[in-house]
Queue: 3 jobs
Job 1
Amino acid sequence: MTGLGSSCGACKFLRRKCTSECVFAPYFCYDQAANHFAAVHKVFGASNVSKLLLHLPVQMRSDAAVTISYEALARIRDPIYGCVAHIFALQEQSK
């Protein structure tokens, strides 16, 4: 739960009440959180991401959530190559 009665981006997208036990709340509580979580849900599925986050140590969950969001957004932009397209573009720039 993010604050006084407000839901995290994941719970807003899933249209459910955000509780204090919400695994997504610490990682999807910013302005674009609902949009980013929509991509995460479409690419990986909310249940899979929830299970993944719960199996990680707490200190690693934030990095995992950022990485999952980045990879999901990249996969939405480029369904074939995903984030690898960005890596290729950076490699070409460095030549």
Job 2
Amino acid sequence: MTLAVDKSKARHKRFDASRVPSTPQALALVEQVRKELLNYEAKCHPRRRARKVVDQVRFDRIVSAIVCDLMHGALTDPVAWRHISLSKRSHGKDSVGVPFMTEERIKIIEWMSKPEMDWLELSKAAQVRNPFGGQQSTIRSSGRLRRHMDERGIRFADIGRDGALMGDPIVLRGKKVRGKASSLPVPSGEPADTYRAEMLRINAWLAAADIECDCDDKGNERDSGDRWVSRIFNNGRLEEGGRPTGGFWAQLSGKSRQRDVRINGEPVVSLDYGQCGIRIAYGLLGVEPPAGDLYCVPGLESYREGVKKVFIAQFFSPRELARKPQGSAKHLPRHSTVREVEELILRHHRPLRSMFYSGAGMEIQSKEGHILIRCLLELIERRIVALPVYDCLVVPRSAIEETRQVMLDCFRQIAGVSGHVEIKEGVGK
């Protein structure tokens, strides 16, 4: 079915061609759609000659990818859309991210939207020339597909991912322009090769791990198979940024994560690096940080959250702050200027003066990323499953002490100073 839809309020996601059927139920539904497409083609668009074997294999892969991503979308949010290019000028890896998604995908999608097929809803992008790039067409599951999913009991566990099609776990972005950063090609050779090998090992370990997640508060199933983690580097440099990101657990609140996630059947705990950025900054200077809570600044003892926000701004800003950082005013003394707050911070952390307004924030984030990756790799050696979330690791409750020691050791090895790890336990169900 082809629709004229107001897409301004739709929640789009990019079409993901890596999805594959992982159970007989899902495979049977994909096969049903494939057979109907071939019958439709024979009746309405008969071919002069049969497809070559290689072409038929590609046709089947396209159908499978489309059906599987539509099913995943139906489970995630049945009213949301997946955007996909239907331009003949864009094909294969350039348009959809994988080489087998050739121009043939266009007619397959259009056929699947026909009333006599009714496997998907299609909203075509307006044919407007736009030198800055226009909207793509969007697709989503039809009511018919969802009914067949219900009949077969299709759930997230029935839809897998082809790891070879997940893309590069190393992502490089350029400098932000108007708040957006474009993707750049990752330089070949080192250190990218090592970073990539590390991430592929981590992702393979997570893919095979026993990780479960309960439904949300509304009873909606969560996709515990969404485990792909990548490293995103910034400003066109592999020396800036690079913290691990991704995975279904990263989308949950801290409370939900500790309440609903289980690893190897166990409740989980979160182990956070406390005052991570400040400690790394001291390490870059070769100076051991003072004892105690580094965000507890004399004269600002009741404004810890505000002090933290000012610290972050000082590390990332290339120039002195003209005003209190966004969102920090309610966490700082009302009648104090940002300059007065900064002076109190500098009085307590004199060695860090040279780190402020130097753009050191990205270098600090890079260190954070390297520390987390080393922790994950060391925990793999110890057969411990850990889920990264910014500067935190989520692990089974039985692995608390071993993970804590690994985190402290890895921090010392890379930052050159002592670390601090805070343990946050939730209430298991």
Job 3
Amino acid sequence: MGVAPRAMTTTTTDLSVPTGFVLLNKPSPFLTMLGPVYAKGMGASMVMGFHVGHHHLNRRGILHGGVVASLADAALGYCLAEPGEGTGGALAMSTASLTVDFIASAGEGDWIEITPEGLRTGSKLAFAQALFHRGDRLIARASAVFAVLGGRI
């Protein structure tokens, strides 16, 4: 028994990318598949964004939670691992824990911005959180712990 998609009153047909966002530089093959994903800034000041595409939807016609979790993991990793100028490469890390709270939905065509924040990076663990917004509306919150592997990649 299928579930009928629900109507989304917030969906827009304007797929323009907000000022300051450019295609994410050197995304992983997985992010390329999920994309296009855009970014503004880098490292601790990075904000990521994307338009919800048809391939991001679940059976109910809304943004799939797995997409949110995947992009949270990526945004948090970029925020913590990406170096500032002249630091010699990204810090090697691996996700140890990822928690996502789903607060509201998003539909096809919606522009979603992901604002990550590094909370602390120690010698063994790093902590971060991210907020997902559709316009002024908070749709998800994520928090993660990363294992610091040492070295730079």
